Amino acid sequence: MSQRAYRFSFSWAALTLAWGASTIAARAQTVDPIKAAQVKAAYLYNFAKFTKWPDKAFPDASAPVVIGVLGADPFGETLDKTVEGKTVENRKFLVKRLPPRSEDDRTALRSCHILYISESLQSRWGPILELLGDAPVLVVGESDEFAAAGGMLSFVLSAGNIVFHLNRDSVERSKLQLSSKLMKLAKVVYPKDKG
To answer: What's the predicted TM-score (pTM) here?
Structure first.
């Protein structure tokens, strides 16, 4: 793998430069699954850097930021390696692969700070989002429809780039605060009728 494929260590300036006009570094004509996993893992890390959770979201000051993966795991070791040794607000990261049928377990879902929902669970989005309700969990999925259906952030392939869509209402309902800089990088923002 080329050294270029591993350049996902972002300061704000590098993040802005890499995302440019709402895109991140996956600029191949076809998307290699390994590179796609690297890009999505980098996004999840950066989403954490630009998200503020309410104090009640953590049991104590040293609790880690829990990234849950629900459904088919596209990351392998990539996500773990991306967040290894990194912190946000002095909190380490903990990556948890939720066991099968966890989509029906309200406690397991709400124990995450970031929940990545695999496209393999597309038919279960509605019930999963309903169980999460207004919990302070940053819910990330895939496809053009996920953010429109009530997910918060959704990875979408656009012209060979992995970009993300944002559902502003879902974020506000959860009492999460996303950096305005991050919100400006969203390729599409729902609902579309808001300014």
So the answer is: 0.84
